[in-house]
Specification:
The protein has 324 residues and is α/β, with parallel strands linked by helices. Helices cover 39% and strands 10% of the residues. The chain has a single domain, classed as Rossmann fold. The radius of gyration is 19 Å and the shape is globular.
Length: 324
Amino acid sequence: MPDLKTAFAVAGIALLVAACSATPDPTSTAGTPTPTATSRPATRPTPTSRTANVPQGPYVALGDSYTAGLGIPEQTGATAGCGQSTGSYPYLVARSLRLKLTDVSCSSATIADMTAAQPTSDGTNPAQLNALSSGTALVTVGIGGNDIGIIDIVTKCTELDLIPALIPGRSSAGLTPCEDFYTSGGTDQIQQRIRAMTGNLADTLTQIRERSPHARVYVVGYPDLLPVGGDGCEDALGITEGDIAFLNREEVRLNGTLKQVARAAGDGYVDTYAPSEGHDACAAPASRWLEPLVPSSPAAPLHPNAAGERGMADAVVQAVKSAS
């Protein structure tokens, strides 16, 4: 029924906005045991070196809500309002590799919050790079989505597509109100935003190298939020097939840029998109790694659920171990 679908879509937008402005109060942080750090080489090892061992020493996780595990039980963290979870990929990676974790990721973080304090709904998260030291052995960086305004983009698409996506008995494959909006005048505004953030990310990776010269650093890409063809997403997101395909292409561009910047800096890149294909927000609830506008599992709308964080953790662990 169109009226019921519309109600769900509108409710989803409200949930999405709420997820960006408030997060559950964290509980006390659960530490992760670690063996004693061993001495490190005088120069920073490259992520592709097969002679280096799995890092032994402190692990620092930097990033946004996809790193923090927003909405996934059990919420934790030193800074209220950041939405960190003990089920997030940093915690899972730390347990798998037996590293001592310092997780400073925070919901709504941008690249600017790597070097400046970030106010949250319940506190202030210190500049994330402050957690780094010369003894840091492993760093993961999951950032960039908020710099291009991905949540605002999806919300705008939902507003523009709500009516055409829910017209009964009509394919929405050729309808692209959102793409038309973001590419009006022949310029892809989202692609411009992606290009604009590359220099800031490159500068951040340089600063990480300066603060932690012996650490192995990995930029972690974003998992597959939307299916390639856009099929089956109208009910879950209220966005047309054509615009779902458009948004998917933009995510692929974002990940491609993150990979390019990481490689240019001599750092590793963790692909979480490929292993998550088929587990997008429009997949069946039992196989989803990410939730739609109205989640069926504990997680924020359009964010990884517990299965998604486990999948991302597996990708990070595999990248680290394959470089050893």
